[in-house]
Structures are given as C-alpha cells and as structure tokens.
Amino acid sequence: MPDILVLYYSRGGSVARLARQIARGVGEVEGMQARLRTVPPVAAVTQAAAPPVPEDGAPYVERADLAECAGLLLGSPTRFGNMAAPLKHFLDGLGAEWASGTLVGKPAAVFTSTATQHGGQESTLLSMMLPLLHHGCVIAGIPYTEPALSATREGGTPYGASHVAGGGDDPQPSDDEAVLARALGRRVAALAARLA
Ligand SMILES: Cc1cc2nc3c(=O)[nH]c(=O)nc-3n(C[C@H](O)[C@H](O)[C@H](O)COP(=O)(O)O)c2cc1C
C-alpha cells in the first residue's frame, strides 16, 4: 500500500505538531502509513540556498513523494489569511506534475495554524485547496459526524484541521484540535484505501 504524503511548512512548530497528529490518524487505517515531508524556507536573497537536509523535523519533499503517494495533506501557517510563501513556492514549481497528471484522482486535505481565532484559518485552508483542485485531487474535509467539530472552542473546521496558537504562539494542539487532526488523517487514508 503506498504512503499518504503529509507535506507542510512550519516555522514555530504549530503546523508541525498538527502534521504529527494527522500522521497518527493515517496510521490508524489498516495498511496505511504517513510520509512526513517539509519544504525549504524561501529568502528575499534568491541566491540563498537551503541546507541540503533540514536541521530538524521532516526531510524535504522530493518529486517522487508526489508520484508515490496515494493521497496527500498540505499544511501551512496562516500568513495574512493565506498560505506561507515556502509552500506556495514549492507548489508553483509543480508544472511538470500538473502536465502529467501525477496527482489526478488522489484524495487530499489541508491544515493550518493561526495566532488568533478569527485570523483567517478558513481563507488559508481554501487557498491551499485551489492548487489541489487544479492538480485533479479529490478534496476531503472534516464532517460534523466528528463530535469534536461541534465541541471545539479553539481550532478544527469542516474545511480542514487547524490550531489556534494564541498570542504566546503555543504550538501544542488542544485535545479537540488533536482529535480532529487525527480524524482528517484517518479520512484521507481511508479514502485512498477505498479508491485503491
Ligand atoms: C508574516 C506573518 C503573517 C501572519 N499572519 C497571520 C494572520 O493573518 N492571522 C493570524 O491569526 N496569525 C497570523 N500569523 C501568525 C501565525 O499564523 C501563527 O503564529 C502560526 O501558529 C505559526 O505556525 P508555525 O508555528 O507552524 O510556524 C502570521 C505570522 C507571520 C510571521
């Protein structure tokens, strides 16, 4: 069974922690496992090169990860109501994958983190869905049959998993946020298994 790609950018660790909860959810589906990958930062000085291996966390994504995955989840911190530049920069380089239909028919979902409760989680989640639709992915959200979706007073949306880090930028997801992140990982993995 091929992997589910969990691909994210995180600077402060909030999105990275959500990604790990999602990966746990993927692993709860029999025969499925998550492949955690990140993207390099971008710099105003365009010649600045990223180190070949990230200093910590997941390895950098490679094009083979996109071809080999059975489904994928994209995560980014919210930056002014939108995804962060490093993830957008990576997506903007996927012309060849778009042309050859590498991701067509694969289930996909999205996740984010903000400092504030109404700081643009849903617009960021929607912004990450747009390129996935162009690539032919089948978008999955979180259904309200997940009780935590109605109970949460922090993050967690029908558009995707999320975390509210607050003014102190606490990266630790709340119980409901973690439950919903795992549910989203499980959902994409279960859809991929059924489609296979
Ligand atoms: C340039 C910039 C723009 C940001 N824009 C928003 C925003 O629009 N709304 C919000 O609530 N938080 C915003 N934040 C805060 C981050 O979304 C938040 O700290 C997030 O949890 C960081 O995720 P990370 O720890 O995975 O890097 C912004 C942060 C930066 C650096």
SSE blueprint:
Elements lengths: L3 E5 L5 H14 L6 E5 L24 H6 L2 E9 L2 E2 L1 H8 L2 H6 L6 E8 L6 H14 L3 E2 L7 H5 L9 E4 L10 H21 L1
Parallel strand pairs: 1-2, 1-3, 3-5, 5-6, 5-7
Antiparallel strand pairs: 3-4
Helix pairs in contact: 1-7
The protein binds flavin mononucleotide (FMN).
A few lines on this structure:
The protein is 38% helix and 18% strand. The protein has 196 residues and is of the alpha/beta class.
- The average pLDDT value, as a whole number, equals 95
CATH homologous superfamily placement: Flavodoxin domain
Provide the number of structural domains. Answer: 1
Helix/strand-derived category reads alpha/beta
Helix tally equals: 7
What would you call the shape?
globular
| Major beta sheet summary | 7 strands, mixed
Ligand catalogue:
flavin mononucleotide
Low-pLDDT regions: none
**First CA to last CA: what distance?**
9 Å
Task: Give the topology string: H per helix, E per strand.
Answer: EHEHEEHHEHEHEH
What fraction, in percent, of the residue positions are helical? 25-40%
CATH first level: which class? Answer: Alpha Beta
Q: What is the CA-atom radius of gyration, in angstroms?
A: 15 Å
Instruction: Find the CATH topology.
Output: Rossmann fold
Supply the CATH architecture. Answer: 3-Layer(aba) Sandwich
Q: Percent of residues in beta strands?
A: 15-25%
- In total, how many beta strands? 7
Supply database-style keywords:
single chain; 196 residues; alpha/beta; Rossmann fold; seven-stranded mixed sheet; 7 helices; 38% helix; 18% strand; binds flavin mononucleotide
